[in-house]
Every structure is written in structure tokens, then in C-alpha cells.
Design brief:
62% helix
Length: 173
């Protein structure tokens, strides 16, 4: 969430939008509640079938948050949370999931959280991998510029990468 907030600020979004993205980003993986633990905590690569189950977290999260957003239309962050849940695994070139959206078809909030989420995943230890360094994560994100990630979001990330590094170091303590 803090990475998404830093990136939304770097992208020069209005303060009210930054606040909404910050709150909404907390819910981006809510659909993982429906993914079995043996898949979430598997120490090795997922099988094709397991990956299909994992990919469903975007749809489940989006549908869940859509119901909440319709029930509480005054809570604007729920609309962003829904869009983020549905779109944070889309790829700028259309090769992502669940809908294969491209470019600006992907909501801005989803494009922002995609970069923030990948940075966090890369620099965090997981059961199946050690944490990568900040420099390695930056390199991987730069390599995905224009294919995985929106070039403008990557540029904003690069402008604020030292904030990301400081935040990661602070969270590690």
C-alpha cells in the first residue's frame, strides 16, 4: 500500500485520488482469501492448474469489491479497489489477466498498483524465493517498461525510486 501511495504521488495525482489509491491498494489481493493455502504457500513453481486457480483471485476480488461498491456508492475508494483487484495483473501489452486489457484500457490505479506490487514482491522474501535487491527490482521493472508496465508509470517510479528504497528499508526494520 505504501509503495502504491508513493507511486501515485510520483504520478502527480490529486491528493484526494492519492488517498483513495492508498486505501484501495490495501484490498488488491482480497480475492486470495478464496485461494487454497497449499497453493498460496507452495514453495516451488505452480502447476498450470494451480496457476489458473491463483489467477482467479483477480476476478473473485473484483466481483466482491464490486458488490461492496454498489452497496456503498459514497465510498469512492471501493470503486478504485474493485478496479485495482481486477486489473493489477493486466499487462500494458495485453498479455496479462484476467481480461487481456492493453494500455489505457487498464485503469490508471491498476497500472500504478501493478508496478508497486511487483516491486514489493521482488524485494520481499517469499516461501519460493529470497528477496531481490532494490537495484535488481528496478532493473526488472525497467525491463518491463512498455510490455508489462505502462511507460509513464515506470518513469514516475524511476523519479521516486529512492523513496521506494527508503520505504523498503524502513519496513525491513
Amino acid at each position: 500500500q505504501r509503495h502504491a501511495t508513493a507511486l501515485a504521488r510520483a504520478f502527480e495525482m490529486p491528493a484526494s485520488d492519492v488517498e483513495c489509491v492508498s486505501t484501495a491498494a490495501l484490498l488488491h489481493d482480497i480475492g486470495k482469501l478464496a485461494v487454497p493455502d497449499h497453493i498460496l504457500t507452495k514453495p516451488g513453481p505452480l502447476t498450470e492448474q494451480e496457476f489458473e486457480v491463483m489467477k482467479r483471485h483477480t476476478v473473485i476480488g473484483g466481483e466482491t469489491l464490486d458488490v461492496l461498491a454498489q452497496t456503498h456508492p459514497e465510498a469512492r475508494f471501493l470503486l478504485l479497489a474493485r478496479d485495482i483487484a481486477w486489473s493489477h495483473h493486466e499487462r500494458y501489452d495485453g498479455s496479462g489477466y484476467p481480461r487481456g486489457l492493453t494500455g489505457s484500457q487498464i485503469p490508471l490505479c491498476g497500472r500504478i498498483v501493478a508496478v508497486a506490487d511487483v516491486y514489493d514482491a521482488l524485494t520481499s522474501r517469499r516461501v519460493y524465493k529470497d528477496a531481490y535487491s532494490h537495484e535488481t527490482a528496478v532493473s526488472i521493472i525497467c525491463d518491463g517498461r512498455g510490455s508489462h508496465f505502462d511507460p509513464e508509470i515506470v518513469d514516475a517510479f524511476l523519479r521516486r525510486q529512492n523513496d521506494f528504497k527508503r520505504l523498503k528499508e524502513a519496513l525491513a526494520e
